[in-house]
Structure formats: C-alpha cells, structure tokens
Amino acid sequence: MITSTRRVSPDKSEVRIAFSLDDTSDVKDVEDPSETFPDLEQRLQPVPPCLALKESVQVYKEHCRMAREFHQVKHEIAVLEDRKRKLLAELVEDEKVAKEIARLEEEFRRLTEENHTLVTVHKERTQQLERLCPTNRTRQDSS
User: Fold this and answer.
1) Could you report the per-residue pLDDT of 18-77, keeping only the tens digit for each?
2) Helix/strand/coil (H, E, C) string of 82-106?
3) Residue 62 to residue 88: CA distance in whole angstroms
4) Other beta carbons less than 10 A from residue 90's beta carbon
5) What is the rounded distance in angstroms from the CA atom of residue 137 to the CA atom of residue 50?
6) Rounded-to-integer distance, Cα 30 and Cα 61, Å
7) Conformation bin of residue 33: beta by default, left when phi > 0, alpha when psi is -120 to 50
8) Could you tell me whether strands 14-19 and 2-7 are parallel, antiparallel, or unpaired per DSSP bridges?
9) How far apart are CA 124 and CA 130, in angstroms?
C-alpha cells in the first residue's frame, strides 16, 4: 500500500491519499468504461477511472450510478409530462362537456317553464270555451 500525505497550502489541513497496486477487487466491478450516457452533456460524462486508485474506481462507479439514475429520472419526468398533457386535454374536453351540459340544462329549464305556461294558457282557454259554449248554445236555441 502506498500512502501520501500533502498539505496543499499552509492554511489548509493535510490531505491523505492511500492506494494499493495489489488490490484489484473493485477494478473487476467497474462498469464498461466505454459506457456513455447520451442524456448527459459531454462535460458531465463519467471519466474512466485510474484503475490503480481504488478511490478513482469508486468515484467512477458512483458517477455512473448517478448518471443511470439521472437517465431514469429524466425518463420518468417525460412519462409524467406526457400524462400531464393527456390529463390537460381531458380536462379541456370535460370543461367543454360541462358547458354543454349547463347549456342543455338551462334550455331544459326554459322549455319546462314555457311548457308549464302553455299548459296553463291551454287550461284557461279550455275553461273559457266551456263557459262560452253554453252561452252560444243558448243563443242558438233562442233564435
């Protein structure tokens, strides 16, 4: 194992780096170094690790995991935005239907009122006719 301790500047604490050239257990688990993430800008693509440094391999693996997670989240956002678009279209359609229902209900109310008025007028005219009919018959009989 190689260990190095450095002080970057007098006011900063020491930085300690340790690695071993013999321990390659994490190197076997490294994702395909040619793996790319098309959703990420070029500057955000994971940089292949220095296989001799365990920390570099760990950082690379974590970076790849985050890139895959980013891709998954971006896909979920796209699915949810599509669902939102469909729901908004349904809402617009439902609002149109609700307006049409309200218009039809108002028309029904108006026609019901008109029908009630016409039935009332019809009854009144029928009663008037019945009152006038006996009078007309009496007049015809006297002539």
Assistant:
1) 555 544 454 455 556 557 788 888 888 998 999 999 999 999 999 999 999 999 999 999
2) HHHHHHHHHHHHHHHHHHHHHHHHH
3) 38
4) 10
5) 121
6) 6
7) alpha
8) antiparallel
9) 10
Three-state DSSP at 115 gives helix
CA separation for the pair 110, 112 (Å, rounded): 5
Strand, coil or helix: what is 6?
A: strand
Number of residues in the chain? 143
Six token digits for residue 1 = 């194992």
Tokens standing for 137? 């018959």
Q: What is the pTM of this model?
A: 0.53
Backbone phi, psi, residue 140, to 5°? -65, -40
